[in-house]
Amino acid sequence: MKTSLKLIAETLKLSKTTISWVLSGKGSEKGISEDTQRKVWECAKRLHYQPNLLARSLHTGKSSTIGLIIPDITDSFYSKVARAIEMEAEEQGYSLMICSSESDVERENRMIRLFKAKQVDGIIIAPTKKSQVEIKALMIEKYPFVLFDRFFPELDTDYVIIDNENTSYRVVNGMIKSGAKKVALITTNSHLYTMWLRGEGYRRALQEAGIGMGEQLVGEVKFDHYEEEINYILDEIFAHVPDVDGFFFTTHILALEAFRYFSERNIDISKGYELGCIHRVSAFRALAPRMHIARMPIQEIGEQSVQILMDRIHDKQNDMDVPRAIKHVMLPCHF
Amino acid sequence: MKTSLKLIAETLKLSKTTISWVLSGKGSEKGISEDTQRKVWECAKRLHYQPNLLARSLHTGKSSTIGLIIPDITDSFYSKVARAIEMEAEEQGYSLMICSSESDVERENRMIRLFKAKQVDGIIIAPTKKSQVEIKALMIEKYPFVLFDRFFPELDTDYVIIDNENTSYRVVNGMIKSGAKKVALITTNSHLYTMWLRGEGYRRALQEAGIGMGEQLVGEVKFDHYEEEINYILDEIFAHVPDVDGFFFTTHILALEAFRYFSERNIDISKGYELGCIHRVSAFRALAPRMHIARMPIQEIGEQSVQILMDRIHDKQNDMDVPRAIKHVMLPCHF
DNA sequence: CTGAAAGCGCTTACAG
DNA sequence: CTGAAAGCGCTTACAG
Fold this sequence. Notes:
Two copies of one chain form a homodimer. The first copy, chain A, has 335 residues and is α/β, with parallel strands linked by helices. Chain A has three domains: 5-51, 434 Repressor (Amino-terminal Domain); 64-157 and 299-331, 3-Layer(aba) Sandwich (Rossmann fold), CATH 3.40.50; 164-294, Response regulator (Rossmann fold, 3-Layer(aba) Sandwich). Chain A has helices at 5-12, 16-23, 34-46, 53-60, 76-91, 105-117, 132-141, 164-177, 193-208, 226-240, 252-264, 284-287, 298-317, and strands at residues 65-70, 95-100, 122-125, 145-148, 159-162, 183-188, 218-221, 246-249, 274-278, 292-294, 328-331. In chain A, helix 8 runs parallel beside helix 9 and helix 10 crosses helix 11 (252-264). The radius of gyration of chain A is 26 Å and the shape is elongated. The interface between A and B is large, with 47 and 46 residues. Chain A binds a DNA duplex (16 and 16 nucleotides) through helix 2 and helix 4.
């Protein structure tokens, strides 16, 4: 038989109440004798008692668990944020459930519903473009949640993002300062506001420098088949702008794929080209030590997301009538 | 008020029982009139009813959830296996909780206890070397679990691993066939049986080829500070064996770090060197397209781990007296 | 065709 | 100092 409060109570001929008080550390506070307390602890240990957290949560109405939904667990950016969130949550006494939406709206919606059904206390989401149905439901129900990395300008939710426009601007600016005159933009998913902003920063940098831009320097990669498509797109750029001397990648995934292309085409990018990218992966130090990189503030994203969520959770549990203001956190990248 | 069975029952002036039957799809089976069923569904939808899975699990004794513990969620191998496991589990009607042990035994033990307290139906673990306390507890309690990637030869548990010895052998053999004569081994964590076996494969390949080996060709990197240590270790190898012409890395992380070293030292590994590695990351296609790589059978590891766990879970739920035999699955890598 | 009742394992007012 | 009792939201034998 599984060890439960009841079993301990019967063994010791005490009530479940007493056992519960002692084991939850309220023994002395409730005035239970030292002697009894010792016996209870001893017995719990002997029978390897493990409280059933489901039962506890069912009663208390809180699970001390938060859910995290990311588009892709194998993406180094998201997995690093996941780790930061896990650490921060743990510090706050919460455990984390991680799910991957695989950038699939339906999957993401399912995950949100599942988290709610499992009574997580709050949810952190890096949403997919069209995920509004369940997100709106969360808003209506006042279910604690916070978005990160991506958000919906038309929805008034908490979110934690990086300053995409300015980050891009600074990276591209650095490339120009280093001598690049014809900088190409390699990007993807521009329908995401986050990605669109990265394009804006690129454009502003070129404009300010009085450097020409144009359709021919912009490569929009469809993310579904980026491996093949990037070949075509880079080929096109080289064909139309033979003197291209810089590539700004809006994500590390595109950059890595481009390196594969350069290698296959025997293009030596170590001279004559300036490269730029948002988010650093370790391979870059070998592939392109001189690349202009904006490092994601992983730690800060994790901490802020958890912190905001904690506030929402506590507000809800304390039944605040006047909710605190929506938080929009925009973090700078590291250079 | 939160929508519950009770609320629907009161609204419809029916019993909770009826609502429960209908909503769990057993309406017709239990002979509940079409009309009532329609009403129940309509009402549930209107009130946005979401069953409380905690309550259900508490009653049924199963949570339809499995736990996964990996040493590092940001490691591309583990995160890919995690994704494979998530997909496979979902197909079996289970959802997944992922935790990272950060290669910390105490953390891992805590995670195992937490999973049990949350009543997950089973656990999949890529264990840290010394994690035996809670693993043994799982064995004693007959709690369903399966190890992957790493295992304990002295413990009789289910596990899914790759054929480490033979994989290494084949990679190094390929390097030798391509002309390498002085192949260095760059490895780490050799106290892990898994890693030790990879060294064994290397040694067998050299031996069979009648190629000399020796202390000077073996670099054991302490994993804690591998970034700095690999510099020292590679420097040593070049110093003592100037004509070294091959490097076999037992993990992709070491290989990536070595590429950074080669780049910093201006060593052109594209000629005159054979390289080998277990597990492929996308950067390799740009860094060293000719590298000899054994690709991890990610999908198979995920599927097999989940499958074995499912069997254990079902056996337990059906109270099998005669447990089925322990499963040791050893998968080949892809070449 | 439908319902009353017990129970999963906890917590927590309330009572003495 | 300790206990009896209710309740969290479900499911499921049992009864009619």
